[in-house]
Specification:
- Its main location: membrane.
- GO terms for molecular function: transmembrane transporter activity.
- It is a multi-pass membrane protein.
- By secondary structure, the protein is mainly α.
- The longest helix has about 30 residues.
- The chain is globular and about 55 Å long.
């Protein structure tokens, strides 16, 4: 951690980190819901439209590893500026797309830029924020994601209603440029580049730190998987029990508001009581709630489970990033975090196909319960391995 004469204040992250992250998230969240419809407009069938919608995550996976070298070379602030600028430029392919290839390229580039932007802010906080304030800092960053995920689709809906679907693609362009402008206008002293990592390749570091990655890193991946299963599973279950779409959307929205309202709670728990006391409740709560979802066969039950899932999720806001920051070695912070984030993103990317496959073979109730089992396994892993490592 960089030592300074003045005590670190979390509010110093608002302008250079939290605000750009919120703006970048708004643009991404506005774009995601319209990608399948845009792909269908170019003649894609349902399966192809789904594939194109998933290209953002594919771009992120491809860029997770090279992101470390980019951040080391340019520094965190410049890396975030360039990522925002390239994302805005890349999405112009989708704005002016005349075929599915141009649309796909725009989505892929945006996902790749997300990896660079995400690693830069994660690594910066891991380096400059004292251990005792990491939980709150990263919980606020998690809250910025949630706020962007809430505002983006609302703005997109307004644009669609007033202008049309194609106009939504301008939102990520505008908000990515706004994020870049905020970073560009940040005073150098407010976000000074941290020392570049000195050492070996990402894969060397992954081998050297493999015990951390295959124990606590794997446990952290289960939380990301459980969250994705919740995001996908709730609307699927609403469809399964024939809940009206508008009712399901309303209840999921109410639950999302609860999730956002409580995001800071996790940071306080993490900093005051330790990582285990956020990790165990969130994963155990997610597991029990996923099991309970399979028993919810009416609107009331669906709402109660959606609220329980949101409450459990809120208790772990920023926790995956906190664990990564805690485990990252001082001599290879970005290399370690790049591989750690690849593990997390890989788990997220595999969740939807795994849920689909399990649903085809065993049915939706068993598939959702299966992710409850994964969440319980993650809780056990957190309980067992969190105390095993010193916090950097």
């Amino acid at each position: 951690m960089t030592k300074t004469e003045q005590p670190f204040k979390i509010k110093s992250l608002v302008y250079p980190v939290f605000l750009p992250s919120f703006l970048f998230s708004v643009g991404e969240a506005a774009l995601i819901p319209v990608i399948p419809a845009s792909a269908e407009g170019f003649g894609a069938d349902l399966a192809t439209a789904g594939f194109i919608a998933g290209l953002g995550m594919l771009g992120t996976l491809f860029a997770d590893i090279p992101a470390a070298r980019i951040v080391n070379h340019f520094g965190e602030r410049k890396a975030m500026i360039y990522a925002a600028a390239v994302a805005a430029t890349g999405i112009l392919f989708a704005v002016f797309a005349t075929n599915m290839i141009m649309l796909s390229l725009g989505i892929l580039i945006t996902g790749a830029c997300h990896a660079i932007f995400g690693l830069a802010r994660h690594g910066y906080i891991a380096e400059v924020v004292p251990v005792e304030k990491r939980g709150r800092s990263l919980a606020i960053l998690g809250g910025a994601f949630r706020a962007g995920g809430f505002v983006g689709p609302l703005l997109g809906a307004v644009v669609i209603a007033t202008i049309g679907v194609s106009a939504v693609f301008w939102l990520p362009v505008i908000f990515s440029l706004l994020a870049g402008f905020i970073l560009l206008s940040t005073k150098p002293g407010a976000m000074a580049d941290t020392p570049p990592n000195q050492g070996h390749s990402i894969f060397f570091i992954a081998r050297r730190e493999n015990r951390k990655l295959r124990t606590l890193g794997l446990a952290a991946s289960t939380l990301a998987i459980a969250r994705t299963a919740r995001t996908i599973g709730l609307p699927l279950w609403a469809l399964y029990i024939n809940l009206p779409v508008e009712t399901a959307a309303l209840y999921i929205g109410i639950a999302g508001a609860l999730d956002f309202a409580l995001f800071y709670t996790s940071g306080q728990v993490v900093d005051r009581f330790g990582r285990r006391w956020a990790a165990m409740p969130t994963l155990t709560g997610m597991a029990v709630s996923l099991f309970a979802l399979t028993l919810a066969h009416d609107a009331t039950g669906f709402l109660l489970v959606a609220l329980a899932l949101s409450l459990s999720n809120a208790l772990g806001s920023g926790l995956v990033m906190v664990i990564g920051a805690d485990l990252a070695p001082k001599d290879a912070r970005n290399e370690f975090l790049a591989f750690y984030r690849l593990m997390i993103d890989g788990g997220v990317a595999m969740t939807a196909p795994a849920l689909s496959l399990m649903t085809v073979i065993f049915g939706l109730p068993v598939a959702i319960a299966g992710f409850g089992v994964i969440s319980l396994a993650g809780a056990v892993g957190m309980w067992r391995y969190i105390p095993k490592f010193e916090i950097n």
